Amino acid sequence: QVPLVESGGGLVQDGGSLRLSCAASGSWISINTMGWYRQAPGKQRELVATITSGGSTNYGDSVKGRFTVSRDNAQNTVYLQMNSLKPEDTAVYYCNAFGRYNLRYANIWGQGTQVTVSS
Length: 119
Hints:
The chain has 119 residues and is mainly β. The chain has strands at residues 4-7, 10-13, 18-24, 28-39, 46-52, 57-59, 67-72, 77-82, 91-101, 104-109, 113-118.
């Protein structure tokens, strides 16, 4: 079973909105932090937003005020609501989770979902 499964990417126009989802499944015992990172062509992977099991959030400077991360602990799912999208938001978005998986602490990445914002 795949530990993290992302959905919701796609093509959207400048100023539009998208919502990403990431569901954790399999041998998770507990998940401390879930979140999103992104990587554009030729650039390093960067923080988008993270959220702890207690609801504390952290955002990258470039998305503050436009993106909102939320989490359903009962469903082990994290969401990213992206509003006022810009062409520079175009990237592969990766879900990330840190917690106890198969009895060990692990930092696990999803397979990535493409977000493309057209100008």
